[in-house]
Amino acid sequence: METNLIVEGFKFMGLGMGTVFVFLIIMILVMQSMAKIIDRFFPEPQAADVTAPKKDNKTIIAAITAAIKHHREG
Fold it and tell me: Count of CB atoms within 10 A of residue 35's CB?
């Protein structure tokens, strides 16, 4: 009697673990296909111009330096 219950327990455990495994595999496949569809119809915007000259930050650096100096003196 007890052996039969143990066997039934292992059957239910295998069925449950198998169901979860199959669900996870299906979920991974659906997520991968969804990512491909999104990339196809909604691609990432490309950078406008990589070779554009960088902005001169000297005025920003001067303002930050002045603010730090004012904070330390005050």
Answer: 10
